[in-house]
Amino acid sequence: MGLELYLDLLSQPCRSIYIFARSNNIPFEFKQVELFKDSVLGKKPAAGSGAEQPHEGPSNSEGAGKVSLLKKVPALKDGDFTLAECNAILLYLSRKYNTPDHWYPSDIQKRAQVDEYLSWHHANIRANAPKTMWIKVLIPLFTGQPLPSEKLQEVMEGLSTSLKQFEERFLQDKAFIIGSEISLADLVAAVELMQPVGAGCDIFEGRPRLMEWRRRVEDAVGKELFFQAHEMIFNIKELSNIQINPQLKEHLAPVLMKILK
Question: Which portions of the sequence form the region Disordered (predicted)?
């Protein structure tokens, strides 16, 4: 049995794994999991060469729960071996398939720089960037209530601080985070920063250094692949016109309302 990847491309970590595997010609079976099952979020990505297209039906969601004890995506199944967590999966794939050294360098100091960014990422970029999607699209969709503008402003201020640190501490005047070639750190960062863009918050506007870096990341993995992986994110605003499954809405609304407080 070959490599199976359980992914939902609405998820930033899932997109980074998908792009990494595809750009490195790693053969895998794409098991699409719909995080918001039975809502509009089941829209399938455009077909592309490389990975096998996702299987239809509920089995992938059920399968992901069996593969990952954490019952969430991304999840990997390689024969009898299973693995969860984005960074762990990226490192596993880079080592097993002996991907080009620039992704996770053998040089101990460059590797440490990648590790440093991946550790910093979670408490900074990832702590704020996804909230833009929840505030502008998902929470209003599931609760039926508009959010006060102060909520978005608070998140954007936190994200702005993180972006400033990203540019000054990690990117500096380099093409990529660790130098002249893309690494896992760049991929994880770029995919995360597309979440606000999909929600209508163009965080790259007025930041030319950040924009040029993003373009280099797109070129390094292939623009067609990069945008195909983000197709659902770019169309996320279409959700506002869709009827949401009542049971799903009833289940999620109380949870999401806590985020408003």
Answer: 46-65
- Residue entry with tokens 């089995």: 59
Enter the pTM of the model.
0.83
Q: For residues 212 and 202, is the Cβ–Cβ distance under 8 A?
A: no
Q: Which residues contact 144 (CB under 8 A, 6 or more apart)?
A: 253
User: pLDDT, tens digit, for every residue of 48-105?
Assistant: 433 444 444 444 555 445 554 445 789 999 999 999 999 999 999 999 999 999 999 9
Residue that terminates a domain, selected from 99, 130, 164: 99
155 shares a domain with 76: no
**Tokens read off for 187:** 């991929």
Check pLDDT > 80 for residue 43: no
Domains in the chain: how many in total?
A: 2
Cα angle 247-86-135, degrees, rounded to a multiple of 5: 45
Whether residue 52 lies inside any domain: the answer is no
Cα separation, 185 vs 177, in Å, equals 7
Count of alpha carbons within 13 angstroms of residue 176, beta-carbon side: 25
The total number of residues written for the chain in this structure: 261
- The single-letter DSSP state of residue 235 is T
Separation of alpha carbons 49 and 127, rounded Å: 33
Q: Could you give the strand order of the β-sheet that contains 29-32, starting from the edge strand earlier in sequence?
A: 29-32, 3-7, 75-78, 81-84
Domain ranges, residue 179? 105-260
**At 81, phi and psi to the nearest 5?**
-90, 135
- CATH code, domain carrying 17: 3.40.30.10
Q: Are 176 and 216 in contact (CB under 8 A)?
A: yes
